[in-house]
Amino acid sequence: MKKTILLALLALIACSLPSGATQWYYTNGNYLVTSMTHDGQKLYVGTKYGLITIDKATGTQTLLNSSNSALPNDKVFSTVMHEGILWVGLDSAYVSEITPEQICNHHYPWNIFEDNPFPFEDDFPFTHHITSIAFGPSEVMYISQLSDFARVVNDQIEGTVRVGSTKLDSSGIEVMKVDANGVLWIVYNVGGRINFSLSRYTPEEGLVYPMADFDESLFPLGKDMMDSRAMDIDADGHVWIGCRGGYLAEYDGETFRFYELIVGVSPYVKPFGDLAFDANGTLWCIAYDGRLISRSGEEITVRQLELVEGEFLNQKGTILKKIA
């Protein structure tokens, strides 16, 4: 019965979104909204049922998935805009390169279990999901799965790096971004190792863990509040992270500052699906509770979505629909 309800809901979404009606659909629970990026006019939101495009001015939304396009599957885990091309990371180690003219699919499987077998390898649900994509200098592309990221040059994997520990476990890389100086910044699912939750990497210096230099008392909810899939870098090179409890963290390379953007959230809840700065310096946040939040200077705009209950993967979830 649950499977029938799910199929009916997804069919409704697939039929409704491309029609041009001003409706926004939003999913909550089990990380169904995974990532967000943008160009000058549109937001691109990765979900477990495809890629959603939202016009920032009108709210008009379309859905791209394996049924209506050349995407190899529907599970989009990461999105990034690079030199006018949209790149998305999907299930089964696929990365899709999307332009208005075509979709080109790349396959980058690598055996993360080869040197350190994981005891539940056959059953572990996140294996070979490309959880994040970032572009570095000289056209280096970084892609991640679980605790590893790979350097891809000329469509070939040149090497892999393990973050946080030499032991592979259920922790993993949540999101990666490259700053203007070519430094790769990584937010890591801490798994109890709180000093690893933010790290930076260059081939010259390797991995550095700046949080190890800060006292726990500086963080309103402790160092493990940084566990998040939401991160971007502003024009000044400051790293921004959406944290548990509704906080935004700003790291300028020397210290952290915290802003409570969503008030009243449990300290154990990670409310941000992703965040991104646009060319105007406006910060856009997708929140798991059904809000699209934009922050320009001190002005904050919130678009609240209407709640409609649903089911997904036998776990309680929601499908949220904006009032037209």
In short:
With 324 residues, the protein is mainly beta.
Assign a percent range to the helix content. under 10%
Give the helices and strands as they follow along the chain. Answer: HEEEEEEEEEEEEEEEEEEEEEEEEEEE
Estimated share of beta-strand residues: over 45%
Q: Nearest-angstrom radius of gyration?
A: 19 Å
The structural domain count equals: 1
The major beta sheet can be summarized as:
4 strands, antiparallel
CATH superfamily: YVTN repeat-like/Quinoprotein amine dehydrogenase
Separate helix tally = 1
CATH architecture verdict:
7 Propeller
Can you describe this structure?
- The protein has 324 residues and is mainly beta.
- The protein has a single domain (44-51, 64-284), classed as YVTN repeat-like/Quinoprotein amine dehydrogenase (Methylamine Dehydrogenase, Chain H).
- The protein is built from one helix and 27 strands.
- The chain has one helix at residues 2-16, and strands at residues 25-28, 33-38, 42-47, 50-55, 61-64, 76-82, 85-90, 94-98, 103-107, 132-135, 141-145, 148-153, 156-162, 172-178, 184-189, 198-202, 206-208, 231-233, 239-242, 247-251, 256-260, 272-277, 283-287, 291-296, 299-304, 306-312, 315-321.
- The longest helix has 15 residues, at 2-16.
